[in-house]
Amino acid sequence: MKESFRILVSRVTAFLFLLLLVSPLADAHVNKHEAAGFWSGLKHPISGLDHVIAMIAVGLWGAQLGAPAIWLLPVAFPMVMAFGGMLGLMGVRLPGVEIGIAASAILLGLAVLLELRPKLALAAILVGIFAIFHGHAHGTELPPDQSGLLYSMGFVLATGCLHAIGIAIGTIHRWNWGKAAVRTAGGAIAVIGGVFLWRALS
Amino acid sequence: MKRRSPRFRFLVFGCVLAAGFVLFPARAEAHLNSTGLGPVYDGLLHFCLSPEDLLPVLALSLYAGQRGIAYGRRLLFLLPAAWLLGGLAGLGHATNITAANAIVSVLSLLLMGGLLAAAAKLPPEWFLGIVLALGASHGYFNAAGLGKPDERGLAVLGIVTAVFIFVALSAAFAVTVRQHWARIALRVTGSWIAACGILLAGWAVRK
Q: By the CB < 8 Å criterion, does B105 face chain A?
């Protein structure tokens, strides 16, 4: 046991030394409109828990609803969210954005918890309205002096990946234990959304 | 005095020669922004490193592949040809075209991404018009924005070559896609590209 632990420590140490050989770019002088935009865009949607849980909830709900919602939501959501982002960038005011975002987490979480199955058009409209709130919040928070297209690419890619994670988790819905796990996750998302709503109102 | 072997003398001669070379260092030319790779390769790389050109072409190629082999074949030859004609028209212009270029980029991303996302059943003549408009407009702005006036023609050839290769690869890939989930993935790609276009419109207005 002691010998194997010593071997493990020596291997980890050797690995850490090897990591020193991998020297990433310093990025000490990021020029205006340079590639910093892509990484900033990629990081932005995953930087706020309120956005992350809502995106994952969309994926979970899509997986629960099955076809065609499972593919319609990931196709429609990025475009509607980008529309909200465009409104934010243009300076169009939208009242109660933070409340809308918190409400989206609560309602989507409840939809997953209760396995609600509304008509496809109603589900798409509900998700679309929430997408506008999320997009608008992102649009108003976007930093200046970024490459617009590179930022947008990173932003859309990260949002799409969050949906994909939600859908991938939601595939466990085919088993009984998976159904219970997905519904529990929905409940947890609703509770976290409640905390965000309380913070938005206080 | 002991006589050294021919092999040893050859080694010493090689070392002396190498040391001699060290005394005459050539220019490193490490900064390609001043030297470039030559006009053709510069043009080729220009396309590969310009997402405002790359994404609409990717969307249109995937859309053509999605619609079938006939559309893919038309695109393969028509798009580079239109790009070349637009490029030749733009060779004589080097004006400030930033605003017009931004509008073309937004419209291209929106239209090509939207077509792919919707898997639209576009009539062949409409498809032809879109291909010609995309190729000619992007080719024009590419050529008008290039530096070094005497090398622009070759750079346009490099860009057109890159367009041809890229269309061939992506349209051929989309033609082979048969599984249901993979065809949905193509449509999701289109929606992401269109979303980039919508956001880019917001950025353009913000600036």
A: yes
**Which residue's entry shows tokens 């617009």?**
A148
What pLDDT does B33 receive? 64
Residue B30 lies in a domain: no
A31 touches chain B (CB under 8 A): no
**In a domain? residue A79:** yes
Chain A residue with minimum CA distance to B195: A79
Any A CB within 8 A of B54 CB? no
Tell me whether residue B109 is in a domain. Answer: yes
- pTM across the whole model: 0.78
Query: Residue B12, exposed/middle/buried by CB under 10 A (0-12, 13-18, 19+)?
Result: exposed
Check residues B162 and B38 and name the one with the higher pLDDT. Answer: B162
Q: Which domain holds residue A197?
A: 44-201
ipTM score for this prediction: 0.74
User: Does any CB of chain A come closer than 8 Å to the CB of residue B188?
Assistant: yes
User: From CA A11, how far away is CA B34, in angstroms rounded?
Assistant: 45
pLDDT digits (tens, 9 = 90+) for A30-84: 555 444 678 878 888 888 888 888 888 888 888 888 877 777 877 888 888 889 9
- Model confidence at A146: pLDDT above 70: no
In the predicted structure, residue B31 carries a pLDDT above the cut 70: no
B196 contacts in A (CB within 8 Å)?
Answer: 82, 149, 152-153, 156
B187, B188, B205 member nearest A89 (Cβ): B205
> What domain count does chain B have?
1
DSSP secondary structure, A45-90, as one string = GGS-HHHHHHHHHHHHHHHHH-TTHHHHHHHHHHHHHHHHHHHHHH
Q: A81 vs B195: CB contact, 8 Å cut-off?
A: yes
Structural domain including B124 reads 39-206
Inside any domain, residue B20: no
Q: Is the pLDDT at B80 greater than 80, yes or no? A: yes
Residue A31 lies in a domain: no
Cβ–Cβ of A149/B204 closer than 8 Å? no
- Structure tokens that stand for A52 in this block: 């992350």
